[in-house]
Amino acid sequence: MTFLTVLLALFFERVLQQHRPQRRHPWFEAYFRRLTTASFAQWLLAKPWGGAVTLIPPLALIAWLQAFFGEIADPVALTFGVVVLLYSLGPGDLGDRAENFISARDEGRGDLADSIAGEFCLGEVPTAEPQRSLAVARGVVVSAARRLIGPIFWFVVFGAVGAAAYRAIQLLAERQQDESCPPEMECHSDKLRHIADWAPARITAAGYAIAGNFDAVAHAWRSFEQMPAEGPLDESEHLLALTGTAALDTFPDDIAETADHPDEPIGSALVPPVVEDALALVWRSLAMWVTVIAGGSLVAALA
Questions:
Q1: Cα–Cα distance for residue pair 193/130, rounded to 1 Å
Q2: Domains in the chain: how many in total?
Q3: Separation between Cα atoms, residue 303 and residue 299, nearest integer Å
Q4: Whose CB has fewer CB within 10 Å in the chain, the N or C terminal residue?
Q5: What is the tens place of the pLDDT at every residue in 82-124?
Q6: CB within 8 Å of 11: residues ≥ 6 apart
């Protein structure tokens, strides 16, 4: 039933877009506000293990519902799993936003393209093409792990509570950074997110190797192992940026080669299809892992 749940969730996500939830997570916003106003919760969040403890109440409820619906009937459990996984994906649709950027870029709507590029870029948005599209392509291959592969991976491992826990950890880290919490709280939430991202990032990178340029990805991975990025939060992003762009044949080996004319205005350069290729790479990798889940479910059913 795991494969069917993942398949239905992705079907709603990619095909039945009109039925896709907005995923604004207002319940978590209210829960986080309560945490920031309660002295005991603030004391917990200041501890290395505090973030995980504060997430236990909502996750315990989801775990209980998962077990309860599993005892009632398979269709009920299937529906519950699809709903939780759908709300754990995202927050926005990766394909829609990337395609919106491509449309805005090609139609000359610079402000809209810059706004969407800001959602993907890991740093400052470049002011010229093709550097801007290269930065967005890098952001696409990095975002795929947290928006798609991460929730699906933890759902396969632990069911609905695993996907919900992954998204809750991401939301907690984002809220603590947005609210300018004390440095120790941000550090602890970053480490918790690093733990949650460690396996999905490597699974995503392995998918890029199989779905893209295997030799280039293998070389990039070895380089990452020899010189990892500093900081627990940046490690997974660094790995995905290196392996994801290495898997793209259209991505330049040295992005500095594209900066010969830094003052050239956006839209005047011939832009390589790096964003389109990055999206195609993500979909191929995702399709491959869904096939692996299908094979594992078949083997489990026959055992």
A1: 32
A2: 1
A3: 6
A4: C
A5: 999 999 997 778 888 899 999 999 888 888 999 999 888 877 8
A6: none
Neighbours of 206 (CB within 10 A): 16
Instruction: Please state the length of the chain.
Output: 303
SS3 56: helix
Question: What is the rounded distance in angstroms from the CA atom of residue 89 to the CA atom of residue 132?
Answer: 26
Q: Is there a contact between 80 and 160 (Cβ–Cβ < 8 Å)?
A: yes
What is the CA angle 107-101-90, rounded to 5?
155
Alpha carbon distances (Å) from 212 to 89, 288, 293: 24, 12, 20
Element containing residue 11 per DSSP (H, E): helix 2-14
User: Cα(289)–Cα(81) distance, rounded to whole angstroms?
Assistant: 18
Identity of the amino acid at 174: E
What separation in angstroms does the CA of 211 have from each of 197, 278, 281? Answer: 21, 11, 6
* Dihedral angle computed from the Cα positions of residues 43, 59, 200 and 289, in that order, rounded to the nearest 10 degrees: -170
Supply the pTM of this predicted model: 0.88
Rg, the chain, Cα only: 20
Q: Which residues contact 57 (CB under 8 A, 6 or more apart)?
A: none
Provide the domain limits for residue 46.
2-302
